[in-house]
Amino acid sequence: MATNSVSGPQKALWIVALSALVGFGAVYVIGGHSDNAPEIGSGPQSVGQTGASSAEASGKMAAFVLKTTPAPLPDITFQDATGKDVTLVSLKGRTVLLNLWATWCQPCREEMPALNRLQQALGGDKFEVVALSLDRTGYDASRKFLDEVKADAVKLYADPTAKQGLALKLIGMPTTILINKDGLEVGRLVGPAEWDSEDAKKLIKAAMN
Predict the structure, then answer these.
(1) Is the model's pLDDT at 46 over the cut of 50?
(2) Among 71, 81, 119, 122, which has the highest number of CB atoms less than 10 A from its own CB?
(3) Non-local CB neighbours of 162 within 8 Å, separated by 6+ positions
């Protein structure tokens, strides 16, 4: 007799597929969601080698992709509030959490308050949250965005050309890159995260040591 029931293995595959789609929906993939969105490629790219499972990348940070060995980053250039050029290498000497975002990105809006609280908790001479806007509307619109979400602790930088996202192999926003004091990428997370969680703080403190 014919049956419409789904076998165990088939059911498991459907669950995995649906879970992946739900997770994918939490990230704004670069490639045309907004007229304001940077054009930074259309296909998936590697976001780093997957390191061994560790206590530093678990819990709330389970989606964080650790490098097996901290890796060099291109020395990108962006602008500060005065319009002055700032290079990534100029931030060496402190651990940096580089958050790449845009005003049209709803997950970025949801995530930013947690980044602000993280900066309030750990920010100082040894650590800084760097909020780099890749929004084509420029610095003023990005500043308004941060004011709206009451993120007054993070330091805003802007790249209205969005070319620096290409250099960093960005595939979606928000993307957050953890950089050690030597200017090397420890790893990255694509999508929003609870950056003020204890798991996030543990990850960052491990990178600071």
Answers:
(1) no
(2) 119
(3) 38, 39, 40, 134, 135, 136
Question: For the stretch 125-156, what's the b/e string if a residue is b when 16 or more beta carbons lie within 10 angstroms of its beta carbon?
Answer: eebbbbbbbbbbbebebbeebbeeeebebbeb
Query: Which residue segments constitute the domains of the chain, with CATH numbers given?
Result: 30-208 (3.40.30.10)
Residue 129 contacts by C-beta under 8 Å, 6 or more apart in sequence?
A: 96, 97, 99, 115, 116, 118, 119, 123, 153, 154, 155, 195
Backbone angles phi, psi at 162, to 5 degrees: 65, 10
Whole-structure pTM value: 0.76
Structure tokens at 202: 């543990």
pLDDT tens-digit readout, 140-191: 899 999 999 999 999 999 998 889 999 999 999 999 999 999 999 999 999 9
pLDDT in tens, 122-142: 999 999 999 999 988 888 899
Residue 189 φ/ψ, nearest 5 degrees: -130, 125
pLDDT computed for residue 8 by the predictor: 54
Query: If DSSP codes are grouped into helix, strand and coil, which group holds residue 27?
Result: coil
Separation CA 174–CA 172 (nearest Å): 6
